[in-house]
């Protein structure tokens, strides 16, 4: 079997890490893969070929640039014979649509999430997705979550065309106990956030910082460690100064992925604050596999993922978030019990091996 895998992100960020790990599993199974993506290095890598498209300007525009600037590269790649065209999300799906028309081969379109971000950029993205997703040619649309499947049906995607396959993680990338970051072990009551500080993540972290205002009253030495770089960092730093909690909030900057995962093992609690309806969040799955208890806003797919293995709190509600964190910090047995259940759930349903198997079964049903 030969696969053309079209994706905006490959190897960087949560979605890119998922795509990289999934493609690696495909190549281990003997599937030949060409990856068409943005930037990167154009050479054979771990059994697959990486073909890149240059992009310009701000990160927010990249998804719009891939269909425009990737067309020439796509035409060149279609000289090869592919059995399956795999498009990872709507904008790569425009190229997958063209590949489907040119080759008449099976096209699998994957929809990780519905971009319901409350920003102008988010509104533009959702306009394109809502108005074009039913016009693209594909044989199956893979949805990552129950809530987004419902939205896709409301948009007019036939129910029989939708297949539910969530995201997944490679447990081999989760550091063990020996890789804990020792310089933070002397802190007590550590709360850690490991996310890039872009718009929507920044807004979510705002509510965690506001929750710290409540927590420092009961835990004067509590530390919130924020690992991530991005445009939101200056705003968050200014916010901590205005709240007079600078000594309790430490900005670590961007860490290598494995070091960020190691940081999660040091923490006493990992809060996730979403200001939108999340899908099967890769960042959340990594936290579930860390062995550290999670406090998360009760929205989107998160409420299903953590229903019985995490503390669910009200979205955009600092006091509720603070109470959830306090519950974990004051009841270690509860935290241990929840974190063990979370890890067990990931092992049972969300490993990259299990997800890759679901995709290869889907491919085989057409091939």
Which tags fit this structure?
single chain, 367 residues, alpha/beta, Rossmann fold, 2 domains, eight-stranded mixed β-sheet, three-stranded parallel β-sheet, 14 helices, 14 strands
Detailed description of the structure:
It is a single chain. The protein is globular, with a radius of gyration of 21 Å. An eight-stranded mixed beta sheet has the order 3-4-2-1-5-6-7-8, sandwiched between helices. The chain has 14 helices and 14 strands. The chain is of the alpha/beta class. The protein folds into two domains: 2-168 and 351-366, 3-Layer(aba) Sandwich (Rossmann fold), CATH 3.40.50; 173-349, Rossmann fold (3-Layer(aba) Sandwich).
Give the class-level CATH name of the largest domain: Alpha Beta
Please give the share of residues in helix.
40-55%
Quickly give the structural class: alpha/beta
According to CATH, what is the topology of the largest domain? Rossmann fold
Run of helices and strands: EHEEEHHEHEHEHEEHEHEHEHEHEHHH
Low-confidence stretches: 40-44
Rounded to an integer, what's the Rg over CA atoms?
Answer: 21 Å
The CATH architecture classification of the largest domain is 3-Layer(aba) Sandwich
